[in-house]
């Protein structure tokens, strides 16, 4: 009787040369010539699939993860985040040092990518850190029903965009991405949360996933990196895999079969 895995070719991943900052930038570079949005997500999860520790993703992170987190932000035109994650993680604006700003400027990008907050209801307090601790005003991607009141409440603290399609009470993801592309913000990085991640994936709008696997077991009832009302399956293939002395794994997957 044949083994169930017969015909499968297994490969042992062995340690290679260290990856410096320049090489890391090459590994995560967006392709040239983008005209439409390329959406990349960045998440961390424990070995047993927990996306948070004590309710926050930052509790799982290590120095290597923070380095890649900063690199992914430095490469992006915009960082798209759900309002729930902005609240839970106490988001402020993206902070980049002088060298990163100079690199972006020479690449034809704005010095700092804005945060784009996705919110159907628009229930955002103007005193939130995302509006008060930022070098550039964020974008608020909201619904037709909410946009006028949100714009009045936030004033100059943000640019409010109506991102509805047929349903005036909902944010339509393709419409939101078209608004970003119209502004030249085609290198999109999303950091969640799990509901936004699930929505983008379910609509076929996610292109890449950068997933850090933290070398810990968490247990409990922590959420996964992707949630939503319905299940689905999206094929992905690995692009590269990195590790560090702390035992973290840094994976990059692209949607589709290789």
UniProtKB/TrEMBL annotation:
<dbReference type="InterPro" id="IPR024072">
    <property type="entry name" value="DHFR-like_dom_sf"/>
</dbReference>
<protein>
    <recommendedName>
        <fullName>Bacterial bifunctional deaminase-reductase C-terminal domain-containing protein</fullName>
    </recommendedName>
</protein>
<dbReference type="Pfam" id="PF01872">
    <property type="entry name" value="RibD_C"/>
</dbReference>
<keyword id="KW-0560">Oxidoreductase</keyword>
<dbReference type="InterPro" id="IPR002734">
    <property type="entry name" value="RibDG_C"/>
</dbReference>
<comment type="pathway">
    <text>Cofactor biosynthesis; riboflavin biosynthesis.</text>
</comment>
<dbReference type="InterPro" id="IPR050765">
    <property type="entry name" value="Riboflavin_Biosynth_HTPR"/>
</dbReference>
<keyword id="KW-0521">NADP</keyword>
<feature type="domain" description="Bacterial bifunctional deaminase-reductase C-terminal">
    <location>
        <begin position="39"/>
        <end position="249"/>
    </location>
</feature>
<dbReference type="GO" id="GO:0009231">
    <property type="term" value="P:riboflavin biosynthetic process"/>
</dbReference>
<dbReference type="GO" id="GO:0008703">
    <property type="term" value="F:5-amino-6-(5-phosphoribosylamino)uracil reductase activity"/>
</dbReference>
């Amino acid at each position: 009787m044949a083994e169930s895995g017969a015909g499968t070719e297994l490969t042992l991943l062995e340690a290679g040369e260290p990856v410096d900052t320049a090489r890391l930038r090459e590994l995560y570079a967006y392709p040239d010539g983008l005209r439409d949005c390329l959406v990349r997500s960045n998440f961390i999860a424990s070995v047993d699939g927990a996306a948070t520790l004590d309710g926050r993703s930052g509790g799982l992170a290590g120095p290597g993860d923070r380095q890649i987190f900063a690199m992914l932000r430095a490469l992006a035109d915009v960082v798209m985040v759900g309002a729930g994650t902005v609240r839970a993680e106490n988001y402020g604006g993206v902070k980049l040092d002088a060298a990163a700003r100079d690199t972006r400027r020479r690449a034809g990008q704005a010095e700092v990518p804005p945060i784009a907050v996705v919110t159907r209801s628009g229930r955002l307090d103007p005193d939130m850190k995302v509006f008060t601790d930022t070098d550039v005003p964020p974008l608020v991607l909201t619904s037709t029903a909410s946009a006028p009141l949100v714009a009045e409440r936030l004033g100059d603290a943000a640019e409010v965009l109506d991102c509805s399609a047929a349903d005036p009470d909902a944010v339509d993801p393709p419409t939101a991405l078209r608004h970003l592309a119209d502004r030249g913000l085609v290198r999109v990085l999303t950091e969640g949360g799990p509901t936004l991640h699930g929505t983008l994936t379910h609509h076929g709008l996610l292109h890449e996933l950068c997933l850090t696997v933290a070398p810990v077991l968490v247990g409990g009832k922590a959420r996964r990196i992707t949630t939503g009302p319905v299940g689905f399956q999206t094929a992905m293939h690995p692009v590269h895999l990195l590790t560090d002395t702390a035992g973290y794994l840094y994976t990059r997957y692209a949607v589709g079969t290789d």
